Amino acid sequence: MKTVAIVFLAVLVVSVVQAGVVHSENRLGAEKRNYWCPNPLPIKCIRRQDKCCLDSDCGLGKVCCNESCGNTCREAVSYPTRGREAAIC
User: Fold this and answer.
1) How many Å is the Cα radius of gyration of the chain?
2) Which helix (H) or strand (E) holds 43?
3) Gap between the Cα atoms of 38 and 59, Å rounded
4) What pLDDT was estimated at residue 87?
5) Which segments constitute the WAP domain (predicted)?
6) Per DSSP, which regions of the chain are E strands?
7) For 26-78, what is each residue's pLDDT tens digit?
8) What is the rounded distance in angstroms from the CA atom of residue 87 to the CA atom of residue 64?
9) Which of 2, 11, 45, 52 is packed most tightly, with the most Cβ within 10 A?
């Protein structure tokens, strides 16, 4: 019984580590290109609706940013801001 539990935990740990590596690679690619999400728009929404999940969902020169109304494609800026990258959907 202990062996089964140890094998299960080992598989779980490897899966979590691999998922973290993939997530890091998606975000590091954006940092290497030196562009960021612009400051968030000062609006509030009743319901969030994601229009993108990754930068690749947006057109050229745009990034997927986390806004109060949901993830949306915005024009990238070349300097750090308070803007937040969208979490993977």
Assistant:
1) 17
2) none
3) 16
4) 78
5) 36-75
6) 62-67, 70-75, 84-85
7) 444 544 568 999 999 899 899 999 999 999 999 999 999 999 999 999 999 99
8) 9
9) 52
